[in-house]
């Protein structure tokens, strides 16, 4: 009986790990596009700036129509409500549109390559991006894209 309980516990742990791994395959940005842009244009939604908690309230009103789980809702709200999103938009879009910025990550660039790229952009004369801001932008990109 003890072996059955241990095996059941291991099996439940395994399935939980598989589910978590599946969730990591889809980035928060992709999840936002899949779940939210069927009713709202991405540009319209991305123009909104609020805290994660405020986005949670907004998303909760649409949760069942959009078929968004609580975990997905948390990830989307974190993606939209992260203060570094606004920083990225205000600094990086001076030279690049968001499509190009998203594409850099979708080109399967590693975290290390993204870090080098952000630093390269930071060092350009017109960037006006501090080391601290570059670190925040880098962290946002690797966390959500």
Tell me about this structure.
Helix 2 (28-36) crosses helix 5 (70-81) and helix 6 (83-92) packs across helix 9 (131-144). The chain folds into 2 domains: 1-81, no CATH class; 83-145, Cytochrome Bc1 Complex, Chain D, domain 2, CATH 1.10.760. The chain has 145 residues and is mainly alpha-helical. 72% of the residues lie in helices and 0% in strands. Mean pLDDT is 81; it is low at 2-24. It is elongated. The relative contact order is 0.11. It starts with a helix and ends with a helix.
List keywords for this structure.
mainly alpha, Cytochrome Bc1 Complex, Chain D, domain 2, 2 domains, 9 helices, 0% strand, disordered N terminus
Spell out the blueprint of helices and strands:
Layout (H helix, E strand, L loop, with lengths): L1 H24 L2 H9 L5 H5 L5 H9 L9 H12 L1 H10 L5 H9 L4 H12 L8 H14 L1
Q: Main beta sheet, described?
A: none
Number of strands: 0
Order of helices and strands: HHHHHHHHH
Strand content: under 5%
Portion of residues in helices? Answer: over 70%
> How many H/I helical runs?
9
Q: Structural class, please?
A: mainly alpha
What is the residue-mean pLDDT, rounded to a whole number? 81
The radius of gyration over CA amounts to: 18 Å
């Amino acid at each position: 009986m003890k072996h059955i309980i241990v095996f059941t516990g291991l099996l439940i742990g395994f399935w939980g790990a598989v589910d978590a791994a599946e969730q990591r395959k889809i980035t928060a940005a992709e999840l936002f596009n899949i779940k939210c842009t069927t009713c709202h244009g991405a540009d319209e939604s991305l123009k909104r700036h609020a805290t994660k908690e405020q986005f949670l309230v907004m998303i909760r009103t649409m949760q069942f129509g959009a078929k968004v789980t609580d975990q997905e809702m948390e990830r989307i709200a974190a993606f939209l409500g992260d203060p570094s999103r606004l920083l990225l938009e205000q600094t990086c879009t001076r030279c690049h549109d968001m499509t190009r910025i998203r594409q850099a990550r979708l080109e399967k660039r590693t975290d290390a390559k993204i870090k080098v790229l952000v630093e390269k952009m930071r060092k350009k004369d017109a960037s006006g991006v501090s080391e601290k801001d570059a670190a925040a932008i880098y962290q946002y990109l690797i966390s959500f894209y």
